[in-house]
Amino acid sequence: MKFITDYNKTAIKYEGRDISYREMIEGAKSYGEHLEIEREDRVIIFMENRPELLYAFLAVWDRKGACVCLDEGFDAKELEYYLRDADARYIFTSNKNLETTREAIAATGVKLKVLVVDELNEGEKRLEAEELWLEHPDREAVALMLYTSGTTGDPKGVMLTYDNILANLEGLEPYKMYEKTDVVLAILPMHHIFPLLGSGIVPLFKGGTVVFLKEMSKAAIGECLQKNGITMIIGVPRLYEMFHRGIMEKIEGNRVAKILFKVCERAGSLNFSKKIFKKVHEGFGGRIKFFVSGGSKLEPQIAKDFLTLGLEVIEGYGMTETAPMISFTPRGQVVPGSAGIVLPGTELKIGEDGEILSRGRHIMKGYFNKPEATAETVVDGWIHTGDLGELRDGKLYVTGRKKEMIVLSTGKNINPLEIEASILKKSNLIQEIAVTEYNNLLTAVIYPNFQAMKDEGITNIRETLKWGAIDEYNNEAPTYRKILGVEVVGEELPKTKLGKVRRFMLKDFLDGMKREEVEVEEPDFEEYRVLADYLKKVKSRGVVPGAHLELDLGLDSLELVELLSFLEHTFKIPVAENLLLEHSTVESLAEYLAANRKEITYEEINWREILTKTKGGELPTPLIRGGLVKFLTWLPLKYYVDLRLKGIENIPDKPCILAGNHQSFLDGFMLNSILPPHVRGETYYMAINIHFEGRIKRFAAENGNIILVNLNKNIKESLQKAAEILQSGGNLVIFPEGARTRDGRIGEFKKTFAILARELEVPVVTFGIRGAYDLMPYGSRVPKRGPVDIEFFEETLCGERSTEDFNREVRDRIKEWLEKK
């Protein structure tokens, strides 16, 4: 039966070549001449995206064989498994992959004939007009075998019949999704069924044109869109995230565009939006009918914003085993967050445990040579997808992956996708995020958006994300869904080629991040050696050239201040905090120093000079005195808190630092209420600015005894203000954890208080708070009633001890006291 005929037009565009349907059909027929195969004989295709991949594919089908498409990125060791398992007779490959192919064949000993497409003469078979067509395999014959791998076990060969594929084609037919006039951009690797059919086989079946790109850069994609009149792009969410980010940044930067965007959002008319945002459409070539997104779920807000721009992003749902569609979105029916309607001729139901089940002609024949795995997946004709979903208003919503659900020790089920979507909505500083259980904590693994960090002048990436995006999410989340661990990483998360996070690899990924770096060849110039030696001493660990100063070496905000001071004194160059934005790795910073330094003089960090050399700007002028705060909070504290106080007499009548653990929102108010009047009026509090966002909180901070510390700029100025307060006779309250505890346990202490105590020779009065977390845990709006213990210990001096030792001693003292209860 005819599958593809001569449409007398261009079938494929590649590297400036326009390949006609005649040329493509003749090329496929020529390839077929090299195949001596019978019905369902398997032929492997192992090459990069290029026209010859489609020639090979169509040649196998024309000869009634079954195509086995493999990832062209496999190395020889990986390829060995597939050569053994597929039991194929031929392999089509390219010069690029030829050495890998030969190495794998030699290792396995399989009898397999290699056909190198760069050496085949694709035009040697000339056809008459009536012969210009290609056949498809028999309906019930296995036509395609693609491999799918789960979280465990060996990859499985999914056997799809031509009828499985035809069920999808026939289901789409009434909706005219593909048309003869279509020009489809093929940018995803064709060993996946979604791009293989969606951007390769189906467009050719319908008489459209396929455009291959050799280079996948943003510039190359943009040029291709302009030159080729692309009508449809088959992509993954990351592609549309890139498009979306570029467009929205321009809109946000233009006041008129922002207003027009809001108008279009309210209007909800595609045609109106297309006229208003005509330039956006012209940027995509001016002929786009719609985008198609698959492989993983697209963030609903992105789909919604594209609708506002007059562009539809079509989403669907399926898997390799369903050839591939179970549901899809017809044109004009986009609902952001939905995977569309069930494909005609397909059955779908939601199991008792929420799993998506499907039945119909689209269900695979089975896994190749794996009957047990097939029986586990397809039960009574129903395929168990392993995904969770809901049907609402006739549309499918995929809510998570059954195997990826996190079951906490409390028995609560956590859907990581929902949490990830919530966090992403709150920050543009996150490129990728995955929620998992790590070290018995619900943990967010974050790969930052470094460009956004740079644009916003953020030097303290880890703390900004932890106290910003994650905290904002935690404020709204129920207790059992709060993120208690945050891991910020310097490289992309492990993913499939279609951009889906491999969650089962996250633990090993994080463990690998925490292991010592392997030895690498280090640059041989003096600036690098001096900088690396300094960092090795500070962090007591090895340093490699590509290490990120914060994410890999773990430099905190104080250590970054120390680093800048070291650079200024050692290399005799003026430095600003934004230097570390431009040069965030050891090697990059060393190269900057080599190009700009005047001389090299070895000096120790002088914190006393840093703290006292320059005034830290104007000190807060409190309109809201401690006495007024005490008056306003006296009655609520009296009602909720049974305060048990001990050691108040240990606060001296001289400047001191009060350093203690931070358990709740109540802590500062409780301290203010118990301090003697003559101490209260001269006591200031250090706090991170992120925790004082909002008009009321900001007013209270700016007009109260509070020094706000910005983690990303002017940290040195904040420390200088703190020093000035102590030197002028005031007291300073510091919570060294930086923020209140998220889980009731005492956190790590920053050594700010220890540096101030040592360099200014002021005493530290350590205090402990116990019970406040039980009354008002993080995220609570209203406290419960109950007892709280606050105890002040005898003052201590840092003396000659290192700041690290003194910091550790103070924390251990509080920790020991907390554990006595």
Strands of the largest sheet, in order across it? 3-2-12-11-13-14-15
Give the low-pLDDT segments.
Answer: none
What's the helix count?
Answer: 30
CATH level-3 fold name of the largest domain? Rossmann fold
Number of domains: 5
> Which class of the largest domain in CATH terms?
Alpha Beta
What's the story with the biggest beta sheet? 7 strands, mixed
CATH superfamily of the largest domain: ANL, N-terminal domain
Overall form? elongated
SSE layout:
Layout (H helix, E strand, L loop, with lengths): L1 E4 L4 E5 L2 E4 H12 L9 E5 L4 H12 L3 E4 L6 H11 L3 E4 L1 H14 L4 E4 L16 E3 L6 E7 L7 E6 H11 L10 E4 L6 H13 L3 E4 L5 H11 L3 E4 L1 H16 L2 H13 L2 H7 L1 H6 L6 E4 L6 H9 L4 E3 L1 E2 L6 E4 L12 E2 L3 E5 L4 E6 L5 E2 L3 H7 E2 L2 E11 L2 E7 L4 E2 L5 E2 L1 H10 L4 E9 L2 E8 L1 H6 L5 H16 L8 E4 L17 H9 L11 H14 L17 H15 L7 H4 L3 H11 L10 H6 L13 H15 E6 L10 E4 L6 H8 L2 H4 L2 E6 L6 H8 L3 E4 L5 H13 L3 E4 L17 H9 L3 E7 L1 H4 L10 E7 L10 H16 L3
Parallel strand pairs: 2-12, 4-5, 4-6, 5-9, 6-7, 11-12, 11-13, 13-14, 14-15, 28-29, 30-36, 31-34, 31-35, 32-33, 32-34
Antiparallel strand pairs: 1-8, 2-3, 9-10, 10-21, 16-17, 17-18, 19-20, 20-23, 22-23, 23-24, 25-26, 27-28, 35-36
